[in-house]
Amino acid sequence: MDSKKRSQTLTLSDTKTKKKKKPTRSEILRKKRAAEGLVSAASSVVDHLSDLDAFRYYDHEGLSVRLDCGRGDRLSAPVKRYIQNLLKVNMEGPFGPEWPTEEKAKRQEMVAPEARYIFVLDDSGQSMSKKSPDVGRCYRHEEDSLNLVGFVHFRFMVEEELPILYVYELQLEARIRGKGLGNFLMELIEVIAKKNHMNAVVLTVQKANHAAMEFYTRKLRYEVSIISPSRVEPSVGKNVSYEILCKAFDLESREVLEENLHLFIMVLFSYPTLPFMLINGQCCGQRGHEKT
């Protein structure tokens, strides 16, 4: 977009913002409480696959897997080791010298009570005709850990007074990639988000993970969020190793994010030291990373 068009776009956006009535404090608090209620309700669900039988199994291009659910504070020791090992194999390269610090953070994130999981298990040894949904079961059996081939770690949370589903990790073993499973899992995540009245799905991707960036932005049409460092302050964002991507499900959510862009710009002009805070991760948090 050339400078003239960009100027026209900002002018139209500014006009739109001025016409909108500024919400009162009580309205903001009421909206936040409503969002927190939705997040609490979603987090209390034991099995997000309980009535989604179509997503219990995936059989395509010679790949046969089944899905199970779990939560961070109920992981067995073998499952914890598997998650740690797969993260190291998949993400040590994209993180580079940042990995030792990130690995420590991820070990804490993976066992948090609010962490929710979709586990991917190799099901090639079973006949598809004999499969039946295992409704209500949460993954925690040690003997099953040998069949794990990937996982999704996600959480329900409030961002900008909006209830969202944040994908912390989508990790698959190399041997099962390229068979459409990543797309299937993200479709499931979006179904879970919408079913639980979340307004958007948000995730973070390392810029060095070119395959993941291509997958989310081009194939799944996720957009770089306005809270991503590269959108908040491009001159600073180019030195930050990650992007925050999002997919909003309704016009109101997109409008809220657009309004917040103007707020961020105002804050940047008011607080010259904010770009340094962004680099140090004190704003626009670096949460999740994917290997699909």
Automatic annotation (TrEMBL):
It comes from the Eukaryota. This is Uncharacterized protein. The lineage of its organism: Eukaryota, Viridiplantae, Streptophyta, Embryophyta, Tracheophyta.
